[in-house]
């Protein structure tokens, strides 16, 4: 077991934003956290990463939280005047001793993740000059440079085009298969969540609505209730696709 949370709760400005969340993560497992806007997905990731205070119990494998868990936030701060390579090197901070500069090994790791995310041509550009999608890949690269056992990704592909979405998710998937890294990813695209995750945890209004493998969780009645719109789940070439239910007025031949 890499991580186990029991009865996790978070209050923000007196509002109970998360309550009674039980969650576990095995070595090499990908857990997809899904749910509508405001369900508590980002709050859950921040609580697990130690950025937000929580109640309940959280047990993480050996080592400090900083060396065990890397969080890729949804809206990261990109520092002015910092190149992409310097920004990715920030991911090595947890490994640097106080006042110790980065080593050749840190630089090699940064160069490796920059290559993996195809950011070589941007390496010396100011990170603030990147497009939204390029910046998102730099943020993923910084999280990967931490070389932690657990990666928490908050909407890792929201700014990416289809090609880069597939590229970023498959790089993470490769790390999981090769190095046994465990992943918790909050994702809005339910098709991608079903494709990459071993299990899905569906949140609604701060609680868990369903947890299980993608076929168990992506169930039309549950999704329609939670997302407050009629949804259907289709199988397409062995993949699950969630689409708004067609009604008489949404038919293509209807005016
Ligand atoms: N500082 C805060 N004070 C009060 N409420 C907050 C605060 N931050 C977040 N919330 C509320 O907590 C709830 C959960 O927010 P969270 O960002 O975790 O949702 P989410 O599932 O990640 O949503 P989205 O899909 O829109 O990113 C929301 O209702 C949000 O308004």
From TrEMBL:
Domain ABC transporter: 3-230
CDD domains the record matches: ABC_Iron-Siderophores_B12_Hemin (cd03214)
InterPro entries assigned to the protein according to its UniProt record, in alphabetical order: AAA+_ATPase (IPR003593), ABC_transporter-like_ATP-bd (IPR003439), ABC_transporter-like_CS (IPR017871), P-loop_NTPase (IPR027417)
Family matches, as Pfam families: ABC_tran
GO molecular function, a single term: ATP hydrolysis activity
Keyword entries, A-Z: ATP-binding, Nucleotide-binding, Translocase, Transport
Keyword Glycoprotein recorded: no
PANTHER family xrefs: HEMIN IMPORT ATP-BINDING PROTEIN HMUV (PTHR42794:SF1)
Protein name (database record): ABC transporter ATP-binding protein
């Amino acid at each position: 077991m890499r991580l186990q949370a029991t009865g996790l709760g978070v209050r923000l400005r007196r509002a109970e934003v998360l309550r009674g969340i039980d969650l576990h993560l095995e070595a090499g497992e990908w857990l997809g956290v899904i749910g509508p806007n405001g369900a508590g997905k980002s709050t859950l990731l921040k609580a697990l990463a130690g950025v937000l205070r929580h109640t309940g119990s959280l047990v993480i494998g050996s080592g400090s939280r900083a060396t065990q868990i890397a969080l890729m936030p949804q809206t990261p701060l990109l520092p002015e005047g910092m190149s992409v390579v310097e920004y990715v090197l920030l991911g090595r901070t947890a490994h640097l001793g106080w006042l110790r500069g980065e080593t050749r090994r840190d630089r090699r790791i940064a160069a490796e993740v920059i290559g993996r995310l195809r950011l070589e041509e941007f390496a010396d550009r100011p990170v603030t000059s990147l497009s939204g999608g390029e910046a998102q890949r730099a943020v993923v690269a910084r999280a990967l440079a931490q070389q932690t056992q657990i990666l928490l990704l908050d909407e890792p592909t929201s700014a990416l085009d289809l090609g880069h979405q597939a590229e970023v998710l498959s790089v993470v998937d490769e790390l999981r298969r090769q190095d046994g890294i465990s992943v918790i990813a909050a994702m809005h695209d339910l098709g991608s969540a079903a494709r990459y995750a071993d299990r899905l945890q569906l949140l609604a209004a701060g609680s868990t609505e369903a947890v299980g493998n993608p076929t168990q969780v992506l169930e039309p009645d549950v999704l329609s209730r939670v997302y407050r719109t009629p949804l259907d789940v289709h199988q397409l070439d062995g993949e699950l696709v969630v689409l708004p239910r067609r009604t008489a007025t949404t038919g293509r031949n209807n005016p």
